[in-house]
Amino acid sequence: MTSTEPSSPRRPLVLIHGLWDTPHLFRRLVRRLDVHDVPLLVPHLPHRLGAVPLRTLAQQLDDHIRRRWGDDTEVDLLGFSMGGIIGRVWLQQLGGVRRTHRFISVGSPQRGTVTAQWIPSWLFAGLADMKRGSPLLRALNADVQSLKRLDCVSFYCRWDLMVVPGWQAHLPVGTVRDLPVLTHQQLMSHPRALEELVRTLLRD
Question: I need a labelling partner for 129 at 20 to 30 A (CA). Which of 60, 70, 81, 204 fits?
């Protein structure tokens, strides 16, 4: 887990990695945010290749946030890919919404992805949670009132081959933006994508 002390007036920011990723995924974004003295928490959430249910990972996320900033400090949240679903579970089902100001979803299968459709839940529960029409996603999308209290922003890649269809990789509320990149990973690595993410994260 990587973290920095909140030594600036900016809200702390939690970055949530996705499937087959680690906190190293955010190294370019972290370098840009360090210049602006943003307090960061970038926890490692071991998912065992997608075998761990996303609710379990959300509970681990909750533990990280509480240990780092207690029960009440207001935070912003950015989730990449599967991390965006983990973030939603924490917000909507574990009470995280009450202490969150902004939620940014980047290339997250908020309506599921065809690439997970034939994954058996008994073998890869976390992957199966991202199927189109999965019980988890149905529950999250059936009650989005709490998300309307937040500043929600979704970024997606139209040509995404990990989240299919890419143009549906966005939250059911808030602002939606198509980033000018060609692949899933470029959402977190391309300079133009990083510029847009930093601009959104630093917005008052």
Answer: 70
